[in-house]
Amino acid sequence: MIRERLLEPLYERYLRMQCRHIPHHIAIIQDGNRRFARALGIDTVQGHRAGADKTEEILDWAHELGIRHITLYSFSTENFGRDQEEVSQLFALFKERFLRVLTDEREHNYRIRVQMVGDRSLLPQDLLTAVSAAEEATRAYDGFFLNIALAYGGRNEIVLAARNIISSVQDGAILPGAIDVRMVESHLYGGRGLPPVDLIIRTGNECRTSNFLPWLANGHESAVYFCAPYWPLFRKIDLLRAMRVYDQRMRSGL
């Protein structure tokens, strides 16, 4: 263990030197919180809390490496099927972390703009109030963009965008012939203007993208990196390895 701790900074430096191309937008599927908790014999909510702590840690790494956009798949539309006590505990944790944005020096020093993407109609009002407070407090920031996907499903996102466009056509605000790729993109993700995804990372040894950002990721042929560590155990080395996969893809296309 001592040897690994001594060698890890050197390996990080080696990986960093290999990454000439830095992804502009990374999307992360944070998988493994519950399995992490089971492996340690702790409550599931403690596993989710450990995952939330890792989320805050990754902000430092992203800032250091020059990544401008990170989108985190924190709670999917499918997750509503979980035990209701677990869902309530997760919502309480999300609320706590969104409110922490108001006083966290990291958010303000790095000028992090916090935004939620997902179906707001599915979330409780107290959580939505905390989300709105965090978004408003960071609205003017443009140093880094942290997008939290809550009550999110890729197909649901496209359906909601289609409904909005159809409504605008019926109101006469949009002509059917004017509907193109750019218009559809402008109606996705609550009009947040998310850029194309360069790299998707999934932790927890699962090799699937689970309906996450299909328009921005699959539509733009993003690089994908699957890794074994549960999300709470994700390391900077794992992030750099993922970035190396993106760099290799970029170099092969030159």
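The record above closes out task 2.4. Task 2.5 opens with a second protein, given below.
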Amino acid sequence: MLIDTHCHLDAAEFDADRDRVHAAALAAGVARIVVPAVAVDGFEKTKTAVERYPGCVAAYGIHPMVVMSARESDLGILRDWLARERPVAVGEIGLDLFVSDIDPARQEFFFVEQLKLAREFDLPVLLHVRRAVDPILKQLRRISVRGGIAHAFNGSRQQADELIKLGFALGFGGAMTFSGSTRIRDLAKSLPLESIVLETDAPDIPPAWLNGGRNSPAELARIADVFADLRGISRAEVILATAANARRVLPRI
């Protein structure tokens, strides 16, 4: 079965047609969808979504892009949710050094504290790593966690190898479908197959054929075909391997 390891099915972009979006994903063979929360005020919506739609599972975390509006007390709320809801991971968490209007120190504080929570509850993490792989690796070496997934990976081969050593799989999705994304496509072709999982990040990171339109989890089937072509293997092999990888790094799915 296909597993979308990163899809914001609870996002406002799906409010008008979420039932149809989920049904289309099932019809395309996507049997599991990991839905990561991004802020504590959205936790209830994430929970409602995964309870309503078969095959959906939740992760809870505070996204680096929302830390400027987050409160330190939100970490206590997150801790309560992790204890009560038994999610598949802590996420989406991490660092984003692409943006310039967010305090890097505040991002790092929330990232570190959430790594500590992941360690406390023995949970994997879903990492946001935009232009921040090295500082994230630094914290992962300092605060050991159960591994997880580096979502939308776009780093170097050396950085990829370091994440793999720490128990992480690397997420590939829409960006891989663009012929000009040479580094991402080279990584998709050359990394060990057992280190890769597939994702959409819907409604974001649309694949090439959507021409910038809204992404959806149903697109994972065609993303899997692109990956199969890059690797020179069958779609069946891709589905089998990436699903096994997802189950290994996220045992609760």
